[in-house]
Amino acid sequence: GNMDRHHYEMFTKFGDDGFLLHLDNARGFGRHSHDEISILAPLSQCCMIKRTTLLRLQLLAEPEYRLSDVMRESLLQDPLAPVLTEPHLLALDRRLQLILEAVGRCIDTFGEATVVANDTAEPQSPAAMDRAKLDT
């Protein structure tokens, strides 16, 4: 229910030297009982995710690294603790599952090789690319 994430403002006080200004309306976590499924539209429509992102999300879904637990521990250091209520923390786990399910549907439809972009490969140096061309 936090639809402000789809919008931005343009700071134009200095004329053509303006810049984008992203705002947070202080409801960054929305209502814990409402999952705004439309926020997944870019993922569901493009069906692409970086491998490193997917691996991190999968790790945060594991019981020993649960997102809510990691966030809860991190926020204990905040002077304003508790920053999030327990229902908001648990909503993080539920929403993470929705994301992983959306990725799963994409993989079922298009295949993992199409959906998961391999960003873990070492970039090749220009010299190595030239050698590869010579070998073919």
Description:
There is one protein chain. The chain is mainly alpha-helical and 136 residues long. The longest helix is centred in the C-terminal third of the chain and has 25 residues, at 86-110. It starts with 8 loop residues before the first strand and ends with a helix. The protein has helices at residues 41-46, 51-60, 67-75, 86-110, 112-115, 126-135, and strands spanning 9-11, 19-21, 49-50, 116-117. α3 runs antiparallel to α4. It is built from six helices and four strands. Helix content is 47%, strand content 7%. It has a domain at 36-121. The strands form two sheets. Strands 1-2 form a two-stranded antiparallel sheet.
What descriptive keywords fit this protein?
136 residues; nucleotide-binding; 4 strands; two-stranded parallel ribbon; FAM20; FA20A Pseudokinase; FAM20_C; transferase
Number of helices: 6
Cα end-to-end separation = 54 Å
Query: Widest sheet: strand order?
Result: 1-2
String of helices and strands: EEHEHHHHEH
Gross morphology: extended
Largest sheet: 2 strands, antiparallel
User: Strand-residue fraction?
Assistant: 5-15%
> Unreliable segments (pLDDT under 50, ≥5 consecutive)?
none
Judged by helices, strands and strand pairing, the structural class is mainly alpha
Helix proportion range: 40-55%
Topology, number of strands? 4
Radius of gyration from CA coordinates: 20 Å
User: What does the average pLDDT come to?
Assistant: 83
Domain FAM20 C-terminal: 1-115
Cofactor: Mn(2+)
Active site: 4
Main location: Golgi
The gist of it:
Keywords: ATP-binding, Disulfide bond, Glycoprotein, Golgi apparatus, Kinase, Manganese, Metal-binding, Nucleotide-binding, Transferase. With 136 residues, this protein is mostly helical.
